[in-house]
Specification:
mainly beta, 1 helix
């Protein structure tokens, strides 16, 4: 999969393939994130607040259509309720959770999207965009809070996979400040289709609703 992602990245941004204009944006996405499972014994136990921030690069192959990528730091997570208890691997050894115990995952990812962006023509100072694609997530931080034992930031390096993927779609508007500089705002939905855990007992995917704010140059 990593090889596939690298090849797609090269194809989309090869100067021999596209020779149109280029832009980049600085973005921040405050968001509500949650974990989704498919087992009654392991349930989603509510959302957590997170944020994604970084750079987005757009390569336009027509006036209004662009291939888009970038890099960002995604601080996210979610809550799971283990109705029948669970044994988890931590830095200090295995830990057994009692039945009906919750665990709050605190996760950090480097995220590289591969996507397509569609922009409208400018109407006055405003234009609008739609954005759809996939995210490639590389785990760089893995910890959890366990409210039942009053433990915070418990290291769980073996519980979370190093790589995962999600798809996203969203849209919003841009306001011209003159020249190529624009303020942007939008609403995004992200849904994981790759299990973030290494557990053989359950599967969990990350999901989020985000408000995107930023500046495009």
């Amino acid at each position: 999969m990593k090889k596939y992602t690298f090849l797609v990245f090269l194809m989309l941004f090869s100067s021999s393939t596209f020779s149109q204009r280029f832009s980049f944006s600085i973005i921040a996405d405050p968001q509500i994130a949650w974990l989704r499972t498919e087992l009654d014994e392991v349930k989603s136990d509510g959302p957590v607040f997170g944020i994604n921030g970084g750079l987005v690069f757009d390569r336009y192959f027509t006036e209004n259509y662009a291939f888009s990528t970038g890099i960002s730091l995604w601080q996210t997570g979610g809550k799971l309720l283990f109705t029948e208890g669970m044994t988890i691997q931590t830095r200090s050894g295995d830990k057994t959770l009692d039945p009906n115990s919750s665990m709050i995952y605190r996760l950090q990812y480097l995220t590289i999207p591969l996507s397509l962006k569609l922009n409208s023509n400018e109407i006055g100072y405003m234009s609008f965009f739609a954005h759809v694609g996939i995210n490639n997530h590389i785990s760089i931080g893995k910890s959890a809070n366990v409210p039942s034992t009053d433990e915070n930031k418990v290291g769980i390096p073996e519980e979370i996979n190093i790589f995962s993927m999600s798809y996203f779609f969203g849209g919003g508007g841009e306001y011209s400040l003159g020249g190529n500089t624009r303020l942007l705002a939008g609403l995004y939905f992200t849904s994981g289709f790759w299990d973030i855990t290494s557990s053989e007992e359950y599967r969990a995917t990350l999901n989020a609703v985000s408000l995107r704010i930023g500046v495009r140059f």
